[in-house]
Amino acid sequence: METPACAFCKEKWSYTDTLKNNFRLTMICPQCGKENYFMPMERNGNKALMILPIVILIGVFIDISIGWLIALSVVLLSIHLLLFPFKTRLKKPHQ
User: Of 78, 94, 91, 80, nearest to 40 (Cα)?
Assistant: First the structure.
């Protein structure tokens, strides 16, 4: 797994730089300072988020306590957020 590379200077971003820019539509390259845009992930990039409601529904039907469901949801969401920098890709504006 790799962190993204700047669409302009092609330098790899660090994990922490990518994580800091996680929730921004435009991401400023720490090396060249140019504005990069978040490119949607590949088709399977959001599976952890899609699994979350399914896990909750299954938990309700098999009578798992709400505490376990919340804990499982937090774990799945945390895993998704921690892996997000490896799934991020960048593009130039209007590409």
Answer: 91
- Give 84's contacts (C-beta < 8 A, 6+ positions apart): 18, 19, 22
DSSP 25: S
Query: What residue segments make up the domains of the chain, in order of their start?
Result: 15-91
Rounded to the nearest angstrom, the gap between the alpha carbon of residue 79 and the centroid of all alpha carbons in its chain is: 9
CB contact at 8 A, 30 and 83? no
Q: In this structure, what token pair is assigned to residue 8? A: 């302009």
pLDDT tens across the length of the chain (95 residues)? 788 999 999 999 999 988 888 777 788 898 999 999 887 665 555 666 677 788 778 888 888 888 888 888 888 888 888 888 888 888 888 75
